[in-house]
Amino acid sequence: MTTHIAIVGAGIVGLSHAVAALDAGYKVTVVEQDAAAVLSSIRNFGHVCTSVQAGELGELAREANPIWRSLAERAGVEARVSGTLAVARTEAEEGVLEELAALRAPAGSEMLDSSAAAAKLGITGSTGIRSGLLLAGDITANPRTAVARIAAWVDAHEHGEVRFNTSVRGISEEPRLALETNRGDIAADHIVIATGHLTGRLFPELASDVRECVLQMARVKAPHVMGLGPAVLTGTSMLRYGAFDGPAQQVLRAEMQATRPELLEIDANVMFTQQPDGTLLVGDSHRSFDSAPPFLDERWSELLLGEVASLLGTERLQVIERWQGIYATSADRDLLRETPMPGVSVVSLTTGVGMTIGPALGARTIAAL
Hints:
This protein has helices spanning 12-23, 55-74, 91-103, 114-120, 146-156, 247-259, 261-265, 298-311, 354-367; strands at residues 4-8, 27-31, 47-48, 79-81, 84-88, 110-113, 131-135, 139-141, 160-163, 168-172, 178-181, 184-187, 190-193, 211-221, 231-233, 271-274, 279-283, 287-289, 318-329, 335-341, 344-349. It is of the alpha+beta class.
């Protein structure tokens, strides 16, 4: 009899477990409370930022990158090898890039001068860009369609099924392991709970340190012809990702505190990804809550949009859509991996790199069964 894996959550982490389980020859049923994935996995940049992760997140990111490439081929996921361009506009930012390039940058990375970095963004006029570091190998996906296409691939697999509009009420152990849902019980040999910031609804004791981090993001029209280039990080990004850690980063933090404290106030990561339709996904700010209110602060949005507009040499960006991103966060850990009962794995990211490492997290969990 084929081993049956039941997975709760049809976001990128849950679906990554499903793909890995199907590849291992298991039968898979994914259940999702909503009619489609509408939370963390579609509200992000689609940036698979392998090159800027460090430690265990870096290991997972490197493992996930080829899985993303495979999903583009097998599941028709809109994903391309775009690379990432980290842009420096101050001497301190340039110092961070030079330190990374000299000590920790992945193979194929390249320091660009002002004109070459600007050219990557389609900027032909005067610019405040001092230099850039082009990080090869990173992927940009379309977050609006990626998880839906993976879910369709799983559901079309002869051993796979995805059940939307199915909420889990609990887990029973007798007479055998099963998910109790609003559409009946689902017996399984192993259960994976991949519900992100909603983990506490089933296992509150495991998620006592997990909060909701919300982001302000927007989709804008590119201000000029840019081609289809790299994802773009700025000085604020250099304060967030592990690969940038080092003495130069501390110099930059002090400069930012002295000159742009408003960006630190909103915990900004000013960045964007370029999408095939000519739009840019722009963001973002960060703020954590036990239960996040839905309200967006327009001052924060204008600050983020103004930073990107300035970088691209335009007065104002034309906003097409705004939204609130959300993901699980914890001050104590980046990964939640627990086994609350025999045959049950709880797996969640508690930092905002789900698209980057989700596929590898699923592969590791399934390989360990």
